[in-house]
Specification:
Strand content of chain A: 15-25%
Number of domains of chain A: 4
CATH class of the largest domain in chain B: Alpha Beta
Distance between the termini of chain B: 24 Å
Low-confidence stretches of chain A: 1-8, 222-227, 231-256, 258-264, 557-561
Number of helices of chain B: 8
CATH architecture of the largest domain in chain A: 2-Layer Sandwich
Largest sheet of chain B: 5 strands, parallel
Helix content of chain A: 40-55%
Structural class of chain A: alpha+beta
Strand content of chain B: 15-25%
Shape of chain A: elongated
Low-confidence stretches of chain B: none
Mean pLDDT of chain A: 78
Shape of chain B: elongated
Mean pLDDT of chain B: 87
Largest interface: A-B, 29 and 29 residues
Number of strands of chain B: 12
Number of helices of chain A: 17
Number of strands of chain A: 14
Oligomer: heterodimer
CATH topology of the largest domain in chain B: Rossmann fold
Helix content of chain B: 40-55%
Structural class of chain B: alpha/beta
Number of domains of chain B: 2
Strand order of the largest sheet of chain A: 2-1-7-6-5
Chain lengths: 561, 229
């Protein structure tokens, strides 16, 4: 029987329907009697009484126990009147006929009972099949990686199908933040504004109240044949409806149910709790106070539990991603600290040793040594300055502040600027080859010069002194390809993935005197990506590495000038 | 005096060479641990300045290998905050350490102190050690501050004796614990702290500002000898 329909129909309607059923049954018995009366000799057919049993079975199957019993009695009376001798009289001649009538009545009633039972069983089986289907669907959604919002929406959709509520919603609230409706089903326009009184303080009160609960409330049988929500901790049955007799109106049960703000029915605020943590609040607007059919208790509870599990999973995912972000930040901090402590100290040590040497009193320094020391100090301050620059660049990379200011520039100018940043000794090692067809390119020259500088610097630094470093530029499809090739030691497969990570330095260089902070390539890759390009690395045939920059000649976003 | 500098930073090597040569030392430079070991075996060195952060064979290994066949004094340099490397180097037999960045004067002072100590240690087992008011008489097991005799427990006396016999030298917790107490006490720094505190109460005029028993935080202690001017 559809609970929704029952719940929605008024009492008088229900009585009318029942009356109709009984009337139909009576008509059925009369029809059978008519058939027997009008077919000549029918009354002599042995077991003609079986015909009446058809009505009984039909009534039991279609209308249930009451109409079937009525059918049984009516059938016996009609049979007596119509078939039993003397006919057309209710009196019975033969005492043995009493036995026949009695047997007929008993058979009819037993059959009606059995049929009703069968009918109920079939309905129950059907019901549990549906429940199982719903639960397996929901549990699949909860267990799989389906987004929690969809899980919650699905749970609510099923809940509104089962429970006669006009609107159901799940509200979550992060600490101190305002309540947020994460899922809703039914007439959303009926939802109160949870950021406003009194709904907001109700949610707050429910959360407060539910703090001591281990699990979400369970359903207990209430009045009027339905079930009502109860906290698992309190054993007393909470009387249906809104109980105003509670001293301050703050007892668990009374808080959760309120007269609807508008119209008839009642509103339930149900805490969704797991392990003493209130994860959310289920809002139910029931047109008729807490009429949840007893048979649906289990599935409603399960649905609520699934909603709780989905919320808990969401919470765990959130916690995990927060933890990961913290760990990442911590890793960066550690890397930065070790960089400051190790990489910054080396040039500082050289400077300090040189300066304190120069400051020593006594014998005057010869000009050559003095110049040598000063030259060293100069170089080391440049090195420190580059490190500081890199750290600042890294912080911009972190902040995502990398929008390139592209313009049409001659490629040879860009490459020339990158080469200019190296001394004559290094420049001798760099060989360039440019595709003649490439005249002007669309890019942020400052940033690409920095990228080329970093790549060339690495190539010079990590390959044997005197070995050549090549810089090539060519056009491929709609892309500009810039390559920096060296004859260094190359990279292992794992390193190929790691070189672009911040603070990564190859183990073989980590403790070496070759200055490096492990952020140059991270900056390169950030800049190239900001140009919608790609920076890749590969090992070169015959030893060494190739860093390849692929830049679209006309980036889509920055194409407008 | 021959000084061997093992450091991978060319600028530091250059600065150290200039600073040391100007103060009358003969300087040999090495960029790696291997080069350093070669240089030490080719030429008699009076002192080795060794950077702990070296590519390839690190400073600790170099220190360990050098100690296997040489008693040359070693001063280790470290840019690291971690005391672990310094302690390990000292345990391996390094004589002193210096944290980068340092001034040339600091380095020169350390070199002089180490060399002086080596010179003193050459005179085998002095019968007494005197510094400031403190006098430790090993022959008679007597400790006096000024004219007052100080009564020490046997373990306190052993501790003071060991430290006084290695003046101006960083002695790690482990070195003190294993020599005075025994190998099984190597990690028991708390015991050491308690005894050092007791010793200071007995021999120092102001235990909070020790004159003789100097603390090297996280590493160990140093028995300071005041130079007689």
């Amino acid at each position: 029987m559809n609970v929704e329909r029952v719940a929605k129909s008024s009492l008088s309607e229900r009585v009318l329907i029942a009356l109709w059923k009984y009337a139909l049954v009576a008509v059925g018995v009369v029809v059978i009697s008519g058939i027997i009366a009008f077919i000549p000799g029918a009354e002599d057919v042995s077991n003609i009484a079986m015909l009446y049993l058809l009505v009984v079975i039909g009534a039991a199957y279609a209308f249930g126990r009451g109409p079937a019993v009525l059918a049984s009695f009516l059938s016996v009376v009609c049979f007596d009147w119509l078939v039993q001798k003397p006919r057309y009289s209710l009196s019975v001649d033969n005492p043995a006929d009493w036995l026949e009538l009695f047997m007929m009545l008993v058979t009819a009633i037993v059959i009606s009972q059995l049929t009703t039972m069968l009918r109920q069983r079939a309905e129950e089986a059907h019901q549990s099949e549906r429940e199982a289907a719903i639960l397996s669907e929901i549990s699949w959604a909860v267990a799989s990686q389906v987004h929690h919002d969809r899980v919650l929406a699905e749970v609510l959709r099923r809940l509104t199908e089962l429970v006669p509520c006009t609107v159901a919603a799940i509200i979550t609230q992060q600490e101190e933040a305002s309540p947020e409706v994460v899922a809703v089903s039914g007439k959303a326009e009926l939802l109160p504004d949870f950021n406003d009184e009194p709904a907001r303080s109700l949610i707050e009160a429910v959360r407060q109240e539910a703090h001591s609960l281990r699990d979400s409330p369970r359903l207990v049988p209430g009045t009027k044949g339905g079930a009502t929500f109860m906290p698992p901790s309190t054993g007393n049955t909470y009387p249906g409806g809104t109980d105003k007799s509670q001293s301050n109106g703050l007892s668990a049960g009374s808080l959760w149910q309120h007269e609807a703000e508008t119209g008839h029915g009642a509103v339930t605020y149900l805490p969704l709790t797991m392990e003493k943590r209130v994860l959310g609040v289920l809002y139910l607007n029931l047109p008729e106070a807490h009429l949840i059919a007893h048979a649906q208790r289990r599935i409603v509870e399960s649905l609520i539990n699934y909603a709780t599990v989905a919320l808990e999973r969401q919470r765990l995912i959130r916690t995990e991603s927060q933890a990961r972000a913290l760990a990442e930040a911590d890793r960066l901090k550690t890397a930065l600290l070790s960089m400051v402590s190790h990489d910054f100290r080396s040039p500082l040590s050289s400077i300090k040793a040189s300066v304190t040497g120069l400051l020593q009193e006594g014998v005057p320094w010869d000009n050559k040594t003095q110049r040598e020391l000063l030259f060293g100090i100069d170089q080391e301050t440049d090195r420190l300055n580059r490190m500081v620059g890199n750290i600042l660049a890294l912080s911009r990379l972190e902040a995502g502040d990398w929008r390139p200011q592209c313009e049409l520039v001659p490629l040879d100018e860009v490459i020339g600027a990158a080469l200019d940043s190296f001394g004559p000794k290094d420049n001798c090692r760099i060989h360039t080859s440019l595709d003649a067809s490439l005249v002007e390119v669309w890019l942020d020259s400052v940033q690409i010069v920095q990228v080329l500088h970093n790549l060339l610097e690495n190539a010079l630094k990590y390959s044997p002194a005197q070995s050549p470093v090549e810089l090539r530029a060519r056009q491929e499809n709609e892309n500009l390809i810039l390559e920096v090739l060296d004859r260094g030691p190359g990279l292992s497969i794992e390193e190929k993935d790691q070189v672009f990570e911040r603070f990564y330095r190859s183990p073989q260089w980590r403790e070496s005197s070759l200055p490096g902070t492990g952020i140059g390539l991270a900056i390169c890759s950030g800049l190239v990506e900001a140009h919608q390009g790609q920076l890749t690395v590969d090992n070169r045939e015959g030893g060494g590495t190739i860093f390849q920059i692929t830049l679209p000649l006309r980036p889509t976003v920055t194409a407008h000038k | 005096m021959n000084v061997l500098v093992i450091d991978d930073e060319p600028q530091i090597r250059r600065a150290l060479r200039a600073g040391l040569e100007r103060n009358g030392y003969e300087v040999t430079l090495a960029a790696t641990g291997e080069e350093g070991l070669d240089a030490a075996s080719l030429q008699q060195q009076d002192i080795v300045i060794l950077d702990l952060a070296l590519p390839g064979m690190d400073g600790l290994q170099t220190c360990q290998q050098l100690r296997e066949w040489s008693k040359v004094p070693i001063i280790v340099l470290s840019v690291r905050e971690g005391e672990r490397d310094k302690i390990a180097a000292l345990d391996y037999g390094a004589d002193d350490y210096l944290t980068k960045p340092f001034s040339i004067d600091e380095l020169l002072a350390r070199i002089r102190a180490v060399l002086r100590r080596i010179g003193n240690e050459a005179e085998t087992n002095p019968s007494t050690v005197t510094t400031g008011d403190l006098r430790v008489d090993f022959a008679r097991r007597r400790v006096t501050v000024g004219s007052a005799e100080i009564h020490l427990t046997p373990i306190e006396y052993e501790l003071l004796k060991y430290m006084a016999l290695h003046p101006d030298r960083v002695l790690t917790h482990r070195q003190l614990l294993t020599t005075v107490w025994g190998n099984e006490y190597a990690e028991d720094t708390h015991t050491l702290r308690v005894h050092i505190a007791n010793l200071r109460n007995k021999i120092e005029a102001d235990p909070a500002r020790p004159r003789y028993l100097h603390t090297e935080p996280r590493i160990g202690y140093r028995f300071r000898v005041e130079l007689v001017q």
